[in-house]
Amino acid sequence: MNKSTKPEDVNFVTEQEKFWSQGFGDEYTHRNQGDSLIARNLALFSKIFSHTQKINSLIEFGANRGLNIEAIKKLLPELEVSAVEINNLAVEELRKIEGMELEIYPQSILDFNTIRVWDFVLIKGVLIHINPNCLEQVYDRLYESSERYICIVEYYNPTPVEITYRGHQGKLFKRDFAGEMLDRFKNLQLLDYGFVYHRDSHFPQDDLTWFLLEK
Asked: CATH assignment of 3-214, given 1.10.238.10, 1.20.1740.10, 3.40.630.30, 3.40.50.150?
């Protein structure tokens, strides 16, 4: 049975939060679904989790409809899972996932605040859409929520750059997110990293680079 904290009326700080909480975020949720995407995530996360030790709990920041969580639960069925998600339609899809007890925080990552920690913190395809002025705040959320591991799966670029995203400006930013976290938190270390090409013959991802960090 899924459970969530009670949604609150909020005034979003950034244009990016409004963008993803409204119609464009709904369209993204409708567009991204299907067993093939879960299969691709299974291939990705089986590789990532092979570098970890015992994990009992996980939280995903920006979980959308739960395609990553569904794949991870197939790999680690006993895992206790939580999710932070800003878009209401995506939250409803999370609640529909059958056979999974899921704690949902229906809010912006920038509003997320808890004293709890999880063994594994995941963010995938989300940092690229955060207002660059708020990235340090998000980095702090990821770090403070992690007992041991932080996994970042994003578009990589050695220097910050903005990319037009489906005709929209100010909505997609590439940079070295993992490197910035390693510089910000001196007790983090890089365990492993990898790249998944969009032309992979079996399990493509959208040219994503993953980084596994450990406290």
From this structure: 3.40.50.150
